[in-house]
Design a protein that fits this description.
8 helices; mainly alpha; globular; 178 residues
Length: 178
């Protein structure tokens, strides 16, 4: 059926929501399976391929958080990179993709201590923040994401510049959350 991909995605989203409430591994596994099938029905050039890439990546990230599977984390990063390619400069979802990839890279940094991953995560969070000027509904989230990534670097280097920026970013985020 021409709309099977949409039905698969909707069911997968509902199962992911239920997984997040109940912690049911069966729901998460079915969510991943359905998202994989939806992605297979949305080949390169499909108008909603980016959503399938992201949905599968988020579900695999959930499973990584539960199991610690390096394969899930690596696939999450790959899928987010693919989605970011589709979200070129000027795309409405670019900030969303930048943050998702940065968060996945930060997870890998926490596992491997790869400075390259942390450096890239900080760069991606900075770009996402630049796309969310004052008044943007996701600005406080971007401020916090960048501050948290810088905090990882501060923990390694002890840089006073990082610490001062962390404080400024958290203050601005707090001001947006009265």
């Amino acid at each position: 059926h021409p709309n099977r991909d949409t039905s698969l995605s909707h069911l997968a989203a509902a199962l992911r929501d239920r997984y997040r409430q109940s912690g049911s591994t069966d729901d998460l596994e079915e969510c991943i399976r359905l998202n994989s099938e939806a992605l297979s029905l949305r080949p390169v050039g499909h108008p909603t391929r980016d959503s399938s890439l992201n949905n599968l990546a988020l579900a695999l990230s959930d499973r990584y958080s539960k199991t610690g599977s390096e394969d899930d984390l690596e696939e999450t990063i790959w899928l987010h990179r693919e989605a970011l390619i589709l979200h070129q400069v000027g795309h409405l979802r670019r900030g969303w993709s930048l943050d998702n990839l940065a968060i996945a890279l930060k997870k890998r940094y926490c596992r491997t201590n790869s400075e390259d991953d942390l450096k890239e995560a900080i760069h991606l969070h900075r770009e996402a923040l630049s796309l969310r000027p004052p008044g943007h509904p996701d600005r406080s989230l971007s401020l916090s994401n960048l501050a948290n990534a810088l905090d990882n670097r501060y923990s390694q280097t002890g840089s006073k510049d990082d610490l001062n920026e962390i404080i400024l970013l958290h203050r601005e985020a707090l001001a947006l959350r009265p």
